[in-house]
UniProtKB/TrEMBL annotation:
Domain of life: Bacteria
UniProt KW Transmembrane helix keyword: yes
Transmembrane stretches, start-end: 28-45, 52-71, 83-102
Keyword entries, A-Z: Membrane, Transmembrane, Transmembrane helix
Pfam families (alphabetical): VanZ
Domain VanZ-like: 29-97
Name of the protein described by the UniProt record: VanZ-like domain-containing protein
């Protein structure tokens, strides 16, 4: 559910006129941060199919850039796609590490019983 809400927020913020979008940091930092959150939420919420997760998240970042070409005052950039994808992939990697840690701790706990 969190991943879907973050994805919806990304799409909505991507199509509003630039003057209406909140600005908290540099564009690249904002892009990397929100897509890192998306990648982490998506990685934690979906079954463990790493290749499918990577394909899905990169396709989503591409779709977000393409959708912007339809919005007045917005445009698609390769640099945004790159930052978005790298942020999302970093989020997926963090989620994978968290899941492995949980599995490991569960195994350690089970072995102590």
């Amino acid at each position: 559910m969190a991943a879907a809400l973050i994805a919806l927020a990304i799409v909505l913020l991507s199509v509003v006129p630039p003057g209406l979008r909140p600005v908290a940091a540099s564009q690249n930092v904002e892009h990397a941060a929100i897509f890192l959150l998306l990648g982490a939420a998506f990685g934690l919420a979906t079954p463990r199919h790493p290749r499918l997760k990577v394909i899905t998240i990169v396709a989503f970042t591409a779709a977000v850039e393409l959708i912007q070409t339809l919005a007045p005052g917005r445009h698609a950039r390769w640099s945004d796609f790159t930052v978005d994808s790298l942020g999302a992939l970093a989020g997926l990697a963090l989620a994978a590490l968290a899941l492995r840690l949980v599995d490991h701790l569960g195994a350690v706990h089970a072995a102590r019983r």
